[in-house]
């Protein structure tokens, strides 16, 4: 391939310009294949570990190799970064197409994860998760367990080696879910020990819609804005971030539908792609939410255990006007979730709970169970 213009490494990322062509228009996303192991059908998400595999970056060549690396001593990350910059370079890109590298990390193990393991998933879902805790452990807007902290420290150490020894580009922007376990994970992963340049500081922004699927569980209810600010004073809030959690409806027994979560995940991607001119973006979020983001991006399913991280090369293209009823308003929204009003008599994996107040399973007979 003939390269007809200079590649301005890093420069394209610093400008604050938005993407005017995308404003009010429909953006279609695709996860570009051929760059990361996680895109390959043979890669098993259950055994894959980012820290054993250079985040999954494939060893390959790019058409821009050799352009300014006559010695051939650049790393895989440096050569990949040059290729992504080439794809975005002003002089030959289409105004309707942008590329970004999204590096999405799931929070480390939280107290709600530990409790789900302790009680078993059916009993957790139908009773325990609706409480704030059990007297020993608290899991409303859960914090990290000691194991979760270790998982985030491991990510910190791994990013350090990538940045310092492997030429992985620094992030242009950092985003986090508003839930405490993600904020705590992002702080432990990025706030200390990394020699970040002054032009690429760890200056994260909290975005409401990077939060976990909004079930009736108390671990999906966020804290107030003031509480979050006291917990993480260096995190900025996106415009319009409310004091109270206005989305959680667990007290009414209603949880978010999958369709709603997918639609609002597309909406937050549209927001980021339209308003953030950076190329390398870090997102700290959740298993369910990252799964929804991957679906919105056209990536194959790739489940992450706690503390795992997945990068995706995203191609975004403006394809036309946004239909007036698009985005979250068109999706069904929230739906009733059944619960037991006391610890269940028994719970069967894959089937559900038998509530103590009746012999039927909670999920089969919602009328018999308490609405929270
Ligand atoms: C790429 O090569 C390096 C060094 O040989 C190796 O450690 C790494 O696992 C390889 N990555 C992939 C995705 O095969
Ligand atoms: C509360 O749950 C935790 C698991 O997160 C468990 O270790 C602990 O024993 C439980 N406490 C009680 C009083 O059951």
What do these coordinates show?
This protein has helices spanning 11-14, 76-88, 111-119, 121-126, 146-165, 180-190, 225-231, 258-275, 287-297, and strands at 25-31, 97-106, 173-176, 205-206, 236-237, 254-256, 280-285, 309-321, 334-336, 346-348, 352-354. Mean pLDDT is 89; it is low at 1-17 and 358-372. The chain contains nine helices and eleven strands. The chain is 27% helix and 15% strand. It has 372 residues and is an alpha/beta fold. It has a domain at 20-51 and 96-109 and 144-337: 3-Layer(aba) Sandwich (Rossmann fold), CATH 3.40.50.1240. The strands form three sheets. A seven-stranded mixed β-sheet has the order 1-8-2-7-3-4-5. The protein is globular and about 75 Å long. One 2-acetamido-2-deoxy-beta-D-glucopyranose (NAG) binds next to helix 3.
